[in-house]
């Protein structure tokens, strides 16, 4: 190394905000400052022998973009550094991250224990498709650690939780569930979509695997679909083997967009959380609000756990309006600025009626059991002025 050559960036020596901007950069011979987008499906070799060595895995380097591409690798390395994971594998969506993890690590006859509030499509994936191929799932009350212990079977291989949950923002003690999972000889996977590594680092709390829908806060601007799985190298190699064989790979274009999203992740999460806290406090004081669900409020049942394992309460606030579906829909329909959509994790604030949209496909019975009432409204708070959000939420009172 000449005296002018700089040592590569070592994430272990820097704070998360710096890691989010600088980790994983791999420069081409042109010395570009911005991360390059490698829109190529395959890679060329100098000789047949080199091709053979790369295909067999005996020589490092890219072969085909179904399994590796330099832009995707940059995103993977940066997210792994942010989560404090040995490795990360990017996927085409959050759902394909979950699918790939289960396909790689489970087999017919295995059993999953999952928290009741997990994402609707995740529940469908477990109950419909994995069940069909002989992998059973037990759903347990999310915040009851004894319920996880009681659900353990000799064939339990995976615990799967999501915290805070959607839409009720229930907070699960990750360290406590990790202890139960490890005592049962199982792995703990945490869907870290709602917090992102800017607010919560499940691996430090004992989780083995972290799942992301990069579609949400990692991109943060509602532009592309993407997903990722983080964890130990041995297990991520298995996930990569599945990707290489089955193909739910992240495109280099989407990887590039999300890589740029990571650079502003920390400041977005801080600002959106601050907006959410202000809005949650205000909602709690409104006479037309029956109840507010936000981990950053002292009234939240798991406020203490949330403040221990998250940096903030996050950017999702749910509340029950006094009345039922009619009042909830009236409030939503009177808004002019907030986006009526089921997505979240965007700089634009979104407003959703979970009982008739995201949770509309599950039975009334299951909805009642999970506490998702017809009067419930979910806000995924963005970066607009909080005063404008409040005005929009009050318009229905004038009509
Ligand atoms: C959106 C979401 C998913 C699925 O992600 P996609 O990128 O839409 O496939 C998984 N888990 C949670 C918590 C989500 O919010």
UniProtKB/TrEMBL annotation:
Subunit structure: Homotetramer.
Gene this chain is encoded by: metZ
Domain of life: Bacteria
Keyword Amino-acid biosynthesis: yes
Record's GO cellular component terms: cytoplasm
Keywords for the protein's UniProt record, in alphabetical order: Amino-acid biosynthesis, Methionine biosynthesis, Pyridoxal phosphate, Transferase
Family assignment from sequence similarity: Belongs to the trans-sulfuration enzymes family. MetZ subfamily.
Enzyme class: transferase
In-chain residues carrying the UniProt-annotated modification N6-(pyridoxal phosphate)lysine: 216
Organism: Methyloversatilis universalis (strain ATCC BAA-1314 / DSM 25237 / JCM 13912 / CCUG 52030 / FAM5)
Name listed for the protein in its UniProt record: O-succinylhomoserine sulfhydrylase
Entry EC number(s): 2.5.1.-
This protein's record includes keyword Amino-acid biosynthesis: yes
GO aspect biological process, one term: transsulfuration
PANTHER family assigned: CYSTATHIONINE GAMMA-LYASE, TRANS-SULFURATION ENZYME FAMILY MEMBER
UniProt cross-references to Pfam families, sorted A to Z: Cys_Met_Meta_PP (PF01053)
Function in brief: Catalyzes the formation of L-homocysteine from O-succinyl-L-homoserine (OSHS) and hydrogen sulfide.
Annotated metabolic or biological route of this protein: Amino-acid biosynthesis; L-methionine biosynthesis via de novo pathway; L-homocysteine from O-succinyl-L-homoserine: step 1/1
Sections of the chain in a coiled coil: none
Cofactor: pyridoxal 5'-phosphate
Molecular function as annotated in GO: carbon-sulfur lyase activity; pyridoxal phosphate binding; transferase activity, transferring alkyl or aryl (other than methyl) groups
Swiss-Prot/TrEMBL catalytic activity: O-succinyl-L-homoserine + hydrogen sulfide = L-homocysteine + succinate
């Amino acid at each position: 190394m000449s005296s002018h050559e700089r040592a590569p960036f070592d994430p272990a020596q820097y704070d998360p905000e710096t890691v989010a901007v600088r980790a994983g950069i791999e420069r081409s011979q042109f010395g570009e400052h911005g991360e390059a987008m490698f829109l190529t499906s395959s890679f060329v070799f100098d000789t047949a022998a080199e091709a053979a060595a790369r295909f067999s895995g005996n020589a490092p380097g890219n072969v085909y973009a179904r399994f590796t591409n330099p832009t995707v690798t940059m995103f993977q390395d940066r997210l792994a550094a942010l989560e404090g994971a040995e490795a990360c594998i990017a996927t085409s969506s959050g759902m394909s991250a979950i699918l790939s993890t289960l396909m790689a690590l489970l087999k017919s006859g295995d059993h999953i224990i999952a928290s009741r509030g997990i994402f609707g499509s995740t529940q469908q994936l477990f109950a419909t498709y994995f069940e069909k191929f002989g992998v059973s799932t037990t759903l347990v009350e999310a915040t009851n650690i004894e319920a996880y212990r009681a659900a353990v079977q000799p064939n339990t291989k995976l615990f799967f939780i999501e915290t805070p949950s959607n839409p009720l923002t229930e907070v699960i003690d990750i360290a406590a569930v990790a202890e139960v999972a490890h005592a049962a000889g199982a792995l703990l996977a945490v869907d870290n979509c709602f917090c992102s590594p800017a607010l919560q680092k499940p691996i430090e709390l004992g989780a083995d695997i972290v799942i992301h829908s990069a579609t949400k806060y990692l991109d943060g601007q509602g532009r592309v679909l993407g997903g990722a799985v983080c964890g130990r190298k041995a297990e991520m190699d298995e996930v990569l083997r599945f990707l290489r064989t089955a193909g739910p790979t992240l495109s280099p274009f989407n990887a590039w967009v999300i890589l740029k999203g990571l650079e502003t992740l920390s400041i977005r999460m801080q600002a959106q959380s601050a907006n959410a806290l202000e809005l949650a406090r205000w909602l709690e004081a409104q006479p037309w609000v029956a109840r507010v669900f936000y981990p950053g409020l002292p009234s939240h049942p798991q406020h203490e756990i949330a403040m221990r394992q998250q940096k903030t309460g996050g950017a999702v606030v749910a509340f029950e309006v006094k009345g039922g579906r009619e009042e909830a829909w009236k409030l939503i329909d009177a808004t002019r600025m907030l986006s009526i959509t089921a997505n979240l994790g965007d700089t634009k604030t979104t407003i959703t009626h979970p009982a008739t949209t995201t949770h509309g496909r599950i039975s009334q019975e299951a909805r009642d059991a999970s506490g998702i009432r017809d009067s419930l409204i979910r806000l995924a708070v963005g970066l607009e002025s909080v005063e404008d959000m409040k005005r929009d939420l009050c318009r229905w009172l004038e009509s």
